[in-house]
Specification:
Length: about 210
């Protein structure tokens, strides 16, 4: 059940669906950010509980989740599979806003992953085959030699590697943050215990 007075959420915070608001913010950032408005800091934890964070590209905001793609054998891929949970943040300096998301992750390596892989440049598709992401690398020269070998083997239309595909984050918490004067920022958080539950909305102290 929604707790927050709806009249308090106006302007950039207005709306009944957090995914729609998030998409609107991203579209605004696409008009003002110089590079990669869809860059997100993705946080995971390893088997010991030690956090890891790195930048990835958010590829889609669907009606119920946030999508990104990676090598399943990478450190982040293994950690996502092990914990089933993740967090991410998008920070847009040009808009002085940020979006924080926490929730559960599901591996998606079906038609959506095939379609996105096919949309990438040929060099990026071949690079996905060549890179043993997160593993030690002898040299840049060795990597380029592997790319050349894969290019000869796979040709101009390589299939998606079985170790590469998507993850979707189904949030249990989404926080919208906007910079305020004197560090009195505006913050609204949408929370639910499980992805199938109704949202509760709260304004937070800065």
């Amino acid at each position: 059940m929604e707790k927050q007075d709806m009249t308090d959420r106006t302007g950039i915070f207005a709306g009944d669906d957090p995914f729609v608001i998030a998409q609107r913010w991203l579209e605004e950032a696409e008009q003002s950010e110089i590079n990669d408005p869809n860059a997100v800091a993705l946080a995971t934890v390893d088997a010991t509980g030690l956090p890891n964070v790195r930048m990835v590209l958010l590829k889609e905001i669907s009606p119920d989740s946030f999508w990104f793609y990676t090598n399943y054998n990478s450190a982040k891929g293994r950690e996502l599979e092990q914990s089933g949970k993740a967090a991410m943040v998008l920070h847009w300096k040009s808009l002085r806003r940020q979006l924080r998301i926490r929730g559960t992750v599901t591996r998606e390596d079906g038609p959506e992953a095939d379609a996105y892989y096919a949309s990438r440049s040929l060099k990026s598709r071949l690079g996905a085959w060549a890179s043993r992401q997160s593993e030690p690398l002898e040299s840049r020269t060795a990597l380029m030699a592997k790319v050349a070998k894969i290019t000869a083997q796979k040709g101009p239309n390589p299939e998606r590697p079985p170790f590469w595909g998507g993850f979707r984050l189904s949030p249990v918490e989404i926080e919208f943050w906007a910079d305020g004067a004197f560090r009195l920022h505006d913050r609204f958080v949408w929370r639910r215990e499980h992805p199938e539950n109704e949202w509760e909305i709260h304004r937070l102290n800065p």
